[in-house]
Amino acid sequence: MRIEPAELAFDSEGTPYSPAYGDVYHSAESGPGQARHVFVGGSDLPRRWAHERNFTILETGFGLGLNFLATWREWRADPARCERLHFVSIEKHPFERDALRTLHRRYAEFAPLAERLRQAWPPLVAGLHRLHLDGERLTLTLAFGDVALLMPRLRLRADGVYLDGFAPRCNPEMWSPQLMRQLARLARPGTSVATYSSAGAVRQGLEAAGFTLEKCSGFGRKREMLRGSYAPRRPPRSPREAVPGRTSRHAIVIGAGLAGAAISERLASRGWQIDLIERRAPPGAQTPGSYAGVFHPHISRDDCILSRATRSGFLYAVSRWPALERTGQALAWARCGVLQLGGDSDREQRMTEAIAALGYPPDYAQYVERGAAETLARCRLKSGGWWFPGAGWMRPLGLIAAQLAAAGARATRAAALTPHFGIGVHAIERNGGEWRALAADGRLIAAAPVLVLANSNDTTRLASIAQPLKNIRGQITYLPAEILTAPRVVLTGSGYVLPAAGGIVVTGSTYDRDNDDPEPQVQSHEANLLRLAQLLPHAQLALDASKLGGAVGFRCVAPDRMPLIGAMPDVDAAHTQKAALSGAQLADLPRCPGLYCASAYASRGLIWATLAGELLASLIEGEPLPLEGDLADALDPGRFVLRQARHAKL
Ligand SMILES: Cc1cc2nc3c(=O)[nH]c(=O)nc-3n(C[C@H](O)[C@H](O)[C@H](O)COP(=O)(O)OP(=O)(O)OC[C@H]3O[C@@H](n4cnc5c(N)ncnc54)[C@H](O)[C@@H]3O)c2cc1C
Ligand SMILES: C[S@@+](CC[C@H](N)C(=O)[O-])C[C@H]1O[C@@H](n2cnc3c(N)ncnc32)[C@H](O)[C@@H]1O
Q: Minimum-distance ligand to the CA of 399?
């Protein structure tokens, strides 16, 4: 979905105004004053968040972010503030960063916070954008898109709701009865609601959805406003999930690859204690090599699930990796840009049409003709293609080491990250509310209430998802940089080639089914050289493949090629309940309590890992999810069991 930015305009009194909706963004008297009186005060904050672990506010209409900034300011000033504040806001027409700067100049009291918000401001593309602010204790999740589409896709439990669309007569879709019912879905008994509007239809819609309301004095020229709380006549169908207590924030993570390192870092950022078990040597002891992977989002004309999910993964990763560097961790990577070449004129045509239909901002993705592509790549090419200016390459081993170091450094206790390298987990078992990881000799390696399987191809040996995972060999080839004019950007198409780094040009990679040879093979190098010839047809390389260096790895691939990120299904229990599961949803599936999975990243480990870490940590903590619900479902490790149950194949 194309995101149309808001137009910067003011009414005759100088109040920010929307020509599209014909209404002002806030009361003419004072935007910050309205935010404090109607929304912060109307939600009985700061009192209600005092001493909570997590507190979640859901807003309709982010606009200039004044409600957010007023809430942030209040929270910072409160010594009894909740440990972590989550602010989730839906916005169909976000402002561009420059427009926000102009607008924010008017509210001097918010200046330092507003600047931090603008620094973290995401590209204007559809979907959820998670921003971490204020030492990561404040999470802002911006949902760009239409409220009617996005509200049903949110996965969260709100403690407070700010209703702040334009006036109902100009903006009825922000106040519809359907929307109020969605609010009730996301509320718990006691969830507050506050709005500047006192319109009868708003009141009726909220009351019909289960909210109890009172009129109280409004702000500025508005005599009255509404405030209230969720008080359903019948108790909600699914009670609030049990969130781990402070003393049980202890997890075992099996596997210290991209998946395990990212989840360890995300849990550690929330004060978790982690036992990380890895059968290989620590990353520092492994030869770093030249292995580097490419990261860029997938795009498709219909903006399919894969495109939306990789967009979230890509944007989250490129916002977190610099944050890691700011904590002093070194990464070997470059956002040099990635050119996905069309290869032939038919495909170029389809790529041009897709990008025009999608309407992305050019700093996210654009189409470039061959000439412009050659200028970017500084080499001769066969075609133009999609240009991702913020994408690039990354050395995974460096990222893993940095995330583990960050997880260790975050520790408030010395033992917050306990690594167990050089030892494989032979089996896992659940005993007395804890998961136990056992070595081959039966020795207990670690025990904890939560266990995350981040062990790639070995996942389904330890726990079932009712489907086997594929193990697909891949080989990359290293070329000495002096023998070719390497592109200045990453080129992808039938394969990929990276810019020269450290005297080496990395190119690849093979996709070898039914091949488990861990050593580089000459025919795989030859296959990679053929791919390279497609990407750089003018390179004219005459090379002896038997003399080339390279590296081999194994991709773990699920039947639908999407990763497995989430709570593990209890396949045995599903079997015994199969009759009841024929029309079930993922939420109805029996799960193994405390058992999670972050696996099957296939060829996109760099795109999935960081977001998966945040998704799992949010799931485990009962925080708002950083992904839309239909995307989280597409990654859910229970999806195969559910499909089997629906088709009576369990
Ligand atoms: C040739 C090739 C090229 C690729 N190129 C790219 C690319 O350009 N971009 C990209 O994003 N992705 C790329 N990938 C994919 C990417 O490498 C993977 O998606 C990613 O490495 C998966 O990370 P992971 O942590 O899930 O798995 P792994 O990296 O395999 O880590 C799993 C870890 O678990 C450990 N483990 C397993 N079982 C146990 C056990 N029982 N006990 C203890 N430890 C255990 C393993 O030793 C391993 O360290 C490529 C893959 C290959 C093979
Ligand atoms: C009154 S303004 C919000 C002001 C904001 N809360 C603040 O603190 O600055 C209303 C916002 O709702 C947004 N909006 C209107 N219709 C929408 C829709 N259908 N879906 C999502 N957002 C919408 C508008 O773009 C606008 O930014």
A: 1
What residue's CA is closest to ligand 1, atom 15?
A: 603
* pLDDT for position 535: 95
pLDDT tens profile 333-389: 999 999 999 999 999 999 999 999 999 999 999 999 999 999 999 999 999 999 999
Query: Quick check: CB of 509 below 6 Å from ligand 1?
Result: yes
pLDDT tens-digit map of 154-213 = 999 999 999 999 999 999 999 999 999 999 999 999 999 999 999 999 999 999 999 999
Residue 469 Cβ contacting ligand 1 at under 6 Å = no
Q: Identify the structural domains of the chain with CATH numbers, from first to last.
A: 17-230 (3.40.50.150), 246-284+397-469+559-646 (3.50.50.60)
Residue from 258, 388, 524 whose mutation best tests the ligand 1 pocket (most atoms within 8 A of CB): 258
Tokens of 377: 């790549």
Question: Is the minimum distance from the CB of 563 to ligand 1 under 6 angstroms?
Answer: no
Residues whose CB falls within 8 Å of the CB of residue 298, separated by 6 or more in sequence, listed in order: 306, 307, 310
pTM equals 0.97
Pairing of strands 17-18, 23-24: antiparallel
Which residue's alpha carbon is nearest to atom 13 within ligand 1? 603
Best residue among 66, 68, 107, 166 to mutate for probing ligand 2's pocket (most ligand atoms within 8 Å of CB) is 166
Q: Which pLDDT score, from 0 to 100, does residue 386 have?
A: 98
Burial 422-444 (b: 16+ CB within 10 A, else e): eebbbebeeeeebbbbbbeeeee
- Longest CA–CA separation in the chain, Å: 83
165 in ligand 2 pocket by Cβ < 6 Å?
yes
- Ligand 1 pocket, 282 CB below 6 A? no
Does any ligand 1 atom lie closer than 6 A to the CB of residue 589? Answer: no
Retrieve residue 400's tokens. 């893993």
DSSP secondary structure, 34-49, as one string: HIIIIIIGGGTTTGGG
pLDDT at 538: 87
568 Cβ contact partners less than 8 Å away, ≥ 6 residues apart: 453, 463, 465, 591, 592, 595, 596, 597, 637, 638
Q: Is 91 in the pocket of ligand 2 (CB under 6 A)?
A: yes
Report the C-alpha gap between 389 and 283 in whole angstroms. 30
Residue 259 Cα distances to 577, 607, 629, angstroms: 32, 11, 21
Residue nearest to atom 37 of ligand 1 (CA): 455
Relative to the CA of 59, which ligand 2 atom is closest? 6
Atom of ligand 1 nearest to the CA of 600: 26
Whether 476 is in the pocket of ligand 1, judged by its Cβ within 6 Å, is yes
Pick left, alpha or beta for residue 44 (phi over 0 → left; psi -120 to 50 → alpha; otherwise beta). left
Q: How far is Cα 562 from Cα 565, in angstroms, rounded to an integer?
A: 9
- CB of 69 within 8 A of CB of 114? yes
Cα distance between residue 143 and residue 355, in whole Å: 22
- For ligand 1, the distance from its centroid to the CA atom of residue 471, given in whole angstroms, is 11
Atom of ligand 1 nearest to the CA of 293: 8
Please determine, for residue 7, whether its predicted confidence score (pLDDT) is greater than 90. Answer: yes
Q: What is the rounded CA–CA span in Å between residue 418 and residue 445?
A: 11
Taking alpha carbons only, the member of 82, 88, 73, 219 closest to residue 141 is 88
Which residues have C-beta within 8 Å of that of residue 610, sequence separation ≥ 6? 262, 313, 316, 317, 320, 321
Band the pLDDT of 290: cuts 50, 70, 90.
low
Atom of ligand 2 nearest to the CA of 68: 8
